[in-house]
Design brief:
Helix content: over 70%
Structural class: mainly alpha
CATH architecture: Orthogonal Bundle
Largest sheet: 2 strands, antiparallel
Number of helices: 13
Strand order of the largest sheet: 1-2
Number of domains: 1
Oligomer: single chain
């Protein structure tokens, strides 16, 4: 197989997600009352980036053939925490941001440690830890409130050069700093190997524990970045159980739309990002076309069901599961 054919086969899911997003966003912007302008792009970017961070977090775990049902609660917890400690002098704000990111990474590390050393199923583990994280968030913010440094929030929610959304640039920076080094590292390749076949990876001498632990820890970090950005956008913190669950479910749909296999070992966080942007654009399209709000959850649920089903259809065409990764 030629190099370009191999590359296309490997990136097919990501390219499909990019194409879907572009088409949907063109339809959205062309039918928006304000048309295509900087404000429309900025608003869409700010909303899409939140789900994109959570989808990236989910993708890292799914690549290892796991699933993290606590990403939405880590997202909620870090939002509540940021509304409490990312205030004050520049030094206090700096350490507040670092604290939020460390808490997000710690939550992911706890998930990974329980899955690895407790030998529990990821779905069971993350349901339990998600409940704990939500309880902590509720203890921090029993009622919506708090604040955040306005200068920092305005910087990350504004625009560069009058048109480029700062949130989108930050997302790109996170991809370059977190995802690219991880995916090209020995640990990142080990995570893919674990997702393809954990038994084969073990027999090949792959450090399975380190790969899984790194994936879960980075997943928590990315969810924490999403919670921090939510605070920047809303200037407040809220322990919203429904919102946390929604982001968890939508992140699963986003990773599948982005070409990440729910069976592990295939896909990328970049595909998950465009899957998230495409999924978020669906809600914008419903708004633009004045879709009845009562029917919107039903429509999004159907899209979620179809997205998850797509991830399983590919395996029906093969006899040997390992061919899925060829």
């Amino acid at each position: 197989m030629k190099d370009w054919r191999f590359w296309f086969a490997e990136q097919r899911g990501t390219l499909m997600a990019i194409a879907i997003f572009i088409v949907m966003f063109i339809i959205y912007s062309s039918n928006h009352p304000a048309g295509f302008n900087a404000n429309v792009v900025q608003t869409a970017s700010n909303k899409g980036v939140l789900l994109a961070f959570v989808a990236m977090a989910q993708a890292l775990v799914v690549i290892t053939a796991g699933i993290d049902l606590s990403v939405g609660m880590i997202f909620t917890l870090t939002n509540c925490l940021a509304s409490w400690i990312v205030v004050g002098s520049p030094v206090q704000v700096f350490f507040g941001v670092v604290g939020v990111l460390l808490v997000g990474a710690l939550c992911g590390a706890i998930n990974g440690a329980i899955v690895i050393y407790g030998r529990l199923q990821p779905i069971v583990t993350t349901i339990a830890t998600g409940a704990v994280y939500y309880g902590i968030a509720l203890a921090i913010r029993p009622n919506p409130g708090g604040s955040v440094d306005e200068t920092l929030a305005d910087f990350f929610t504004g625009r560069f050069f009058g048109f480029i959304p700062a949130s989108l640039m930050t997302l790109a920076a996170v991809v370059l700093v977190v995802w690219v080094p991880f995916s090209r590292s020995v640990t990142g390749r080990a995570a893919y190997a674990v997702g393809s076949s954990e038994a084969a990876a073990y027999m090949s001498g792959v450090n399975i524990r380190r790969a899984k632990f790194a994936a879960y820890t980075l997943s928590g970090l990315l969810a924490g970045i999403g919670g921090l950005f939510l605070t920047f956008f809303t200037y407040t913190g809220e322990a919203a159980y429904a919102s946390g669950n929604a982001y968890t479910l939508f992140s699963i749909a986003a990773v599948v739309l982005g070409g990440v296999s729910l069976f592990g070992g295939k896909g990328s966080a970049i595909g998950a990002i465009f899957g998230a942007l495409a999924f978020r654009t669906i809600g914008d399209l419903l708004f633009v076309f004045d879709f009845d709000p009562l029917w919107q959850p039903l429509f999004q649920g159907v899209v979620l069901l179809l997205a998850v089903s797509i991830g399983a259809f590919g395996l029906f065409r093969i006899r040997n599961r390992l061919d899925w990764f060829g």
